[in-house]
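can u do me a favor
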């Protein structure tokens, strides 16, 4: 069989496309692994198994593994199929800020600190979670003494450093 310049070019282009596709796929897997390592997970589940959608109705509920959804390497549990569907439609809307770590701890420079899933605040459509245990008590109360906007700006900057 005679190899023509057209055939060689097609083979080369196909090889380049396949190589790029493999690299993009590997990149996606690496970023998911990095993302997962920065999330506050308990037994591989975000929010200690609480339903992220339920926070936005003002009534947080524990999720059920029967209604689980994985999003970019992080698994969430939901209290209902309807909440799982709402999350699937707009996961960015419902995911907690700072990987589910305490927002106050980040704002005051304490890094990643676990949370109490019942201590939370929704600000401008974003979910923030807080620590609530001895010896510091509910850090949501401390957060509320300051400006949401200022503390979020500080916590955002700290979160970027934590992830890098």
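np, heres the sequence
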């Amino acid at each position: 069989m005679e190899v023509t310049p057209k055939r060689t070019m097609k083979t080369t282009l196909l090889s380049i496309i396949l190589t790029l596709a493999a690299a993009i796929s590997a990149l996606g897997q690496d970023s998911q692994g990095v993302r997962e390592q920065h999330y506050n997970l308990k037994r591989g589940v975000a929010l200690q198994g609480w339903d992220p959608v339920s926070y936005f109705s003002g009534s947080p509920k524990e999720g059920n593994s029967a209604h689980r959804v994985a999003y970019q390497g992080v698994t969430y549990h939901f209290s209902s199929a309807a909440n799982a569907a709402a999350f699937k439609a707009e996961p960015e809307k419902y995911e907690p800020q700072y990987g589910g770590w305490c927002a106050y701890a980040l704002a005051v420079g304490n890094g990643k600190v676990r949370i109490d899933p019942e201590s939370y605040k929704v600000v401008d459509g974003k979910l923030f979670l807080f620590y609530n245990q001895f010896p510091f008590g509910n850090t949501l109360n401390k957060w509320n003494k300051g400006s949401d906007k200022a503390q979020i700006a500080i916590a955002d900057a700290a979160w970027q450093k934590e992830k890098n």
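The longest helix spans residues 5-38. hope that helps!!
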